[in-house]
Here is the input.
Amino acid sequence: MRLFIAVNLSDEMKDSLIRMQNALYDRGARGNYTPEENLHLTLAFIGEYPDAQPVLDALSAVAFRPFELSLEGMGCFGDLWWAGVRDSVPLTVVVRRLRRALAENGIPFDKKRFSPHITLLRKASGALPGITPEPASMTVTALSLMRSDRGRNGMIYTELGSVEADGE
Ligand code: 2AM
Here is the structure.
């Protein structure tokens, strides 16, 4: 199984991201647009791993309070174009706790520096146009363990379990 830990986005946040995708399309950008149901923020990429349960156990040890997530700008890694997510203390802290819990449970993950982004378009043509995204934010109340499968028409992401934020 190919696994990762993500924040699944609110409908309002996804609507804003779809409008960004539409603006890119109107500016002539072509490529593989992320379908609405696949839009997410990855917090940790585990990759191939045989068993979900130890990952769910590690995830359940991550304590966090609900926190705000806001979009901020756009950028690209080569031909992968993304919507930026504003770096914030609660986001940094939850990612640090999550990565520590994975490490303590012997679960491998990609240790690259965390660069919060939501992929809008892969294999994009041309140069990223200068688009000012509308402000959008949501409250994160859960972290999800996701499985990624290659489907006939692109990737299929399935939630295998989640951990909820602690109450106030
Ligand atoms: P990306 O959108 O920038 O490709 C499922 O593949 C999720 O895990 C995607 O959000 C992907 O980010 C992310 N991811 C992070 N590191 C990855 C890696 N080394 N290989 C594949 N996907 C990775």
Observations:
- The first strand starts at residue 2 and ends at 8.
- The pocket of adenosine-2'-monophosphate is lined by residues 4, 42, 45, 80, 110, 119, 148 (CB under 6 Å).
- The chain is about 25% helix and 40% strand.
- Helices lie at 11-26, 53-60, 89-104.
